[in-house]
């Protein structure tokens, strides 16, 4: 039985927190007044970090949430994605237990954008726009903002929000600052220990007649983490027409090594009070090595749990290494000319993913069927099978798929802004206008080979027997697994063959593409302060030129494809902020946004094989959203705030996967899988947040910190499709994919001048992951709710030396995908807790 978290409980806790805030404010006010002029050097700095973030959030023109690095220049989590998930309305998609992609207010990662120092980060992966933020080590980041309402001078390319990463600047510290850390982490699942080292340094220098007007900051980080996971999955192979019977299952064991290395070198120059210039550079390299052993059973007939029959058995291996790199270079500046302010920025970013030649799949088939085979447990199925399934001599090599792939995504932009302050009937005002040009190119190159029919190539049964490829026994937490497979032995066998004879031209050519996306933008906006009001009104224009080139295959015949399109968007926006009193403000915003479909959805390649087809859709329309936001924020002393926001999004042209078989040009096809635009979708919700340091309480309770946030959202969307079984068009109401109804965080902390403790929990309710056909809701894939609990402690041995301990995933939370109902497995995966011990030296 899987753990469930209560939505009502989260709401109840948040409302209790709001009541506590109101009750405690009078008590804290006097204490805050008596201490506000006293400065303390905080080595630990949970409260200092929260307080700095809240100040930035409070003064922002947009609705946004912020995480700041603490006193030792580090974000409070392992990587940028895991730091972001602590913010209101934010959840993350995990890969092998590590936070990677960020969802904002229930909208999937591909519907949000990521910027580093104000310039867009392109995506390393071939099919996605989403950027995996675990590529960025937390040590390179000074602050992280999630901007949820966009002003007209910002790119309008996110429906949920824009994740903006700011790297270290010398002006973040006074004078010389340097820090160095070393860490060892222990993975309980694989019993492996991994190292990590990082450091940062910054200082200011005097150039010309200025004093401390030139700053240099640098940061480096390196980590190699060895870990693994254990998995059992069905892929949705349930036959519900025969009473929930299973067709196949597969056990998977992952052995993973991830190496992260990153560096940044930043320069700031402020020659006078009227001008400033900067250069921001960042490089990050992420190397992921994975060995996946698999053992599968495919039943001759679908079987219920406990039922026995004949089954075909297979042993499989995937062994690959991929390297993702992100480079970002941003040069910009600002200059004041009287009432005018001129600012500009030039940015260049390049992401890539390189997967050299590797074993995409090696399959060993059982020589005979395994009689009296079955499974038990619908939600976490394990095989019932005889001893022969674990004997390597009963399996022979059938096929090897070999692949290599290279993806690059480059974005260049140039932005210019001009603003003028002026008086509007006695009220301070500013008019601002500007433009931006962006040029983006995404290229993908895949080569594939398929080696099979080994007996016809002269290999003997003995040469193909798994016994000759065996590599020990797999360590598998979920039960008995059997022999592992040596990738080196497989490479040796196929290395002597003529690779040209096994080249898969169809797979190689249809997955290659070149996509160009040029965006020209301009805007005009005006800001005015009228008594306690601040208004921002403006209009943004974005014109897009799109081009996609690729190859299609029809029954083995190839043809080039090319699509060119132009489209335009006018995007008005209105923001208002009203200061109720010194510490309370109300915000409202009406904005428009546009997001282009993913590159996988727009891919120009296609495959038509007899009566089956699959293809991308480069004619997809961009997603458009009209957004309403309304909320109130109240700030209470140090590190204290309570807020509530409601939001509503009307989304047009959302994209979903569909089967066009039986319609139009695909009338005589049994399958025609592609992507289509839906008419409209609605997303609405409530976002609550609270944090406070109880420094008005008597010692030792004055070190307590409490933080909680919860987001409750709902979505409504409708898809259309042809039901081949009934011969009619159908409609179906769905939730938006990747949208969780409830996301929440709870943090309990305590700190003094030497010790800092933090216990945190992150909750995300279940969500729709992937749609089945229009008339087959029972086979929709859903991801189950998850609650991750982490603990961290830091102790200052001296003023400059700090010892740290972290424990992640304390409750060993699994990743569970189910088919239609929680009783039926799609995928179940366990990771185990991770423990870390570190030492940090810091000079302020």
Automatic annotation (TrEMBL):
<feature type="signal peptide">
    <location>
        <begin position="1"/>
        <end position="19"/>
    </location>
</feature>
<keyword id="KW-0798">TonB box</keyword>
<keyword id="KW-0813">Transport</keyword>
<dbReference type="InterPro" id="IPR037066">
    <property type="entry name" value="Plug_dom_sf"/>
</dbReference>
<dbReference type="InterPro" id="IPR010104">
    <property type="entry name" value="TonB_rcpt_bac"/>
</dbReference>
<protein>
    <submittedName>
        <fullName>TonB-dependent outer membrane receptor protein</fullName>
    </submittedName>
</protein>
<dbReference type="InterPro" id="IPR012910">
    <property type="entry name" value="Plug_dom"/>
</dbReference>
<dbReference type="InterPro" id="IPR039426">
    <property type="entry name" value="TonB-dep_rcpt-like"/>
</dbReference>
<dbReference type="InterPro" id="IPR036942">
    <property type="entry name" value="Beta-barrel_TonB_sf"/>
</dbReference>
<comment type="similarity">
    <text>Belongs to the TonB-dependent receptor family.</text>
</comment>
<dbReference type="GO" id="GO:0009279">
    <property type="term" value="C:cell outer membrane"/>
</dbReference>
<keyword id="KW-0472">Membrane</keyword>
<keyword id="KW-1134">Transmembrane beta strand</keyword>
<dbReference type="Pfam" id="PF00593">
    <property type="entry name" value="TonB_dep_Rec_b-barrel"/>
</dbReference>
<dbReference type="InterPro" id="IPR000531">
    <property type="entry name" value="Beta-barrel_TonB"/>
</dbReference>
<feature type="domain" description="TonB-dependent receptor plug">
    <location>
        <begin position="57"/>
        <end position="162"/>
    </location>
</feature>
<dbReference type="Pfam" id="PF07715">
    <property type="entry name" value="Plug"/>
</dbReference>
<keyword id="KW-0675">Receptor</keyword>
<keyword id="KW-0998">Cell outer membrane</keyword>
<feature type="region of interest" description="Disordered">
    <location>
        <begin position="297"/>
        <end position="319"/>
    </location>
</feature>
<feature type="domain" description="TonB-dependent receptor-like beta-barrel">
    <location>
        <begin position="372"/>
        <end position="810"/>
    </location>
</feature>
<keyword id="KW-0812">Transmembrane</keyword>
<keyword id="KW-0732">Signal</keyword>
């Amino acid at each position: 039985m899987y753990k469930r978290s209560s939505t009502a409980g989260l709401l109840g806790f948040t409302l209790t927190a709001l009541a506590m805030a109101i009750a405690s404010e009078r008590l804290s006010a006097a204490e805050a007044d008596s201490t506000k002029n006293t400065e303390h050097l905080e080595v630990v700095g949970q409260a200092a970090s929260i307080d700095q973030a809240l100040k930035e959030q409070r003064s922002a023109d947009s609705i946004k949430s912020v995480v700041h690095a603490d006193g030792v220049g580090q974000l409070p989590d392992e990587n940028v994605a895991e730091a972001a998930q602590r913010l209101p309305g934010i959840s993350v998609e995990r890969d092998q237990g590590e936070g990677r992609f960020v969802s904002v207010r229930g909208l999937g990662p591909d519907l949000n954008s990521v910027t580093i120092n104000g310039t867009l980060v392109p995506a390393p992966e071939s099919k996605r726009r989403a950027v995996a933020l675990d590529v960025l080590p937390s040590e390179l980041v000074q602050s992280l903002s999630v901007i949820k309402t966009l002003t007209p001078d910002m790119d309008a390319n996110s429906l949920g929000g824009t994740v903006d990463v700011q790297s270290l600047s010398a002006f973040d510290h006074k004078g010389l600052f340097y820090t160095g850390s070393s860490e060892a982490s222990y993975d309980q699942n694989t019993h492996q220990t991994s190292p990590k080292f990082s450091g940062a340094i910054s200082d200011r220098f005097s150039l010309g007649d200025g004093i401390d007007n030139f700053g240099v900051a640098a940061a480096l980080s390196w980590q190699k983490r060895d870990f693994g996971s254990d998995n059992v999955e069905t892929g949705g192979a349930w036959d519900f027409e025969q009473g929930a019977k299973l067709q196949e299952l597969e056990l998977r064991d992952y052995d993973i090594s991830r190496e992260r290395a990153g560096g940044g070198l930043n320069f700031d120059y402020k020659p006078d009070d009227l001008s400033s210039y900067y250069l921001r550079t960042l490089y990050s390299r992420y190397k992921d090595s994975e060995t996946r052993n698999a053992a599968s059973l495919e039943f001759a007939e679908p079987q219920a749990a406990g039922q026995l029959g004949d089954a075909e058995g297979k042993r499989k291996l995937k062994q690959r290494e991929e390297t993702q790199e992100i480079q970002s270079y941003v040069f910009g500046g600002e200059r004041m000319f009287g009432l005018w302010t001129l600012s500009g920025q030039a940015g260049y970013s390049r992401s890539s993913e390189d997967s050299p030649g590797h074993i995409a799949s090696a399959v060993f088939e059982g020589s005979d069927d395994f009689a009296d085979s079955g499974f038990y447990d619908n939600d976490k199925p394990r095989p019932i099978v005889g001893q022969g399934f674990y004997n390597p001599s009963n399996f022979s090599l059938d096929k090897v798929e070999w692949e290599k792939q290279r993806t690059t995504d480059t974005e260049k932009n140039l932005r210019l802004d001009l603003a003028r302050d002026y008086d509007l009937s006695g009220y301070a005002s500013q008019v601002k206008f500007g433009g931006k040009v962006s040029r983006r190119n995404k290229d993908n190159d895949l080569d594939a080979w398929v080696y099979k029919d080994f007996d016809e190539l002269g290999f003997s049964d003995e040469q193909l027997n798994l016994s000759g490829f065996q590599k020990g026994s797999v360590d598998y937490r979920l039960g008995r697994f059997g022999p592992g497979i040596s990738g080196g032995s497989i490479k040796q066998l196929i290395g002597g063959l003529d690779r040209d004879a096994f080249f898969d031209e169809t797979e190689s050519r249809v997955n290659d593409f070149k996509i160009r996306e040029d965006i020209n933008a301009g805007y005009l906006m005006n800001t005015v302060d009228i008594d306690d009001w601040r208004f921002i009104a403006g209009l943004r224009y974005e014109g897009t030129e799109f081009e996609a080139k690729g190859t299609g295959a029809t029954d083995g015949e190839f043809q080039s494809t090319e699509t060119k399109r132009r489209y335009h968007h006018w995007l008005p926006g209105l923001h208002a902020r009203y200061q109720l009193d010194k510490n309370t403000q109300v915000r409202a915003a009406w904005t428009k946004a546009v997001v282009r479909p993913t590159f996988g959805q727009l891919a120009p390649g296609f495959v038509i094989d007899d009566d089956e087809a699959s293809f991308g859709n480069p004619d997809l329309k961009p997603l458009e959203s009209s957004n309403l936001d309304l909320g109130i924020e109240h700030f209470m002393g140090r590190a204290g705030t309570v807020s509530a926001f409601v939001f509503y999004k009307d989304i047009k042209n959302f994209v979903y996967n569909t089967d066009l078989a039986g319609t139009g040009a695909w009338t005589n096809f049994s399958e025609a899988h592609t992507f289509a635009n839906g008419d409209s979708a609605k997303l609405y919700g409530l976002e609550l947040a609270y944090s406070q340091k109880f420094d008005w309480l008597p010692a030792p309770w004055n070190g307590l910190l409490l933080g909680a946030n919860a987001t409750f959202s709902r979505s409504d969307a409708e898809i259309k499709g042809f039901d081949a079984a009934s011969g009619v068009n159908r409609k179906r109401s769905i939730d938006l994919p990747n949208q969780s109804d409830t996301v929440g965080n709870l943090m309990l902390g305590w700190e003094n001048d030497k010790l800092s403790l933090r216990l945190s929990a992150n909750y995300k309710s279940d969500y729709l992951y992937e749609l089945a056909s229009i008339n087959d809701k029972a086979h929709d894939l859903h991801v189950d709710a998850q609650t991750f609990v982490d603990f961290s402690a830091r102790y200052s041995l001296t003023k400059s030396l700090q010892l740290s301990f972290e424990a992640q995933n304390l409750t060993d939370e699994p990743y569970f995908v189910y088919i239609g109902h929680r009783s039926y497995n799609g995928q179940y995966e366990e990771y185990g807790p991770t423990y870390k011990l570190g030492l940090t030296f810091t000079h302020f």
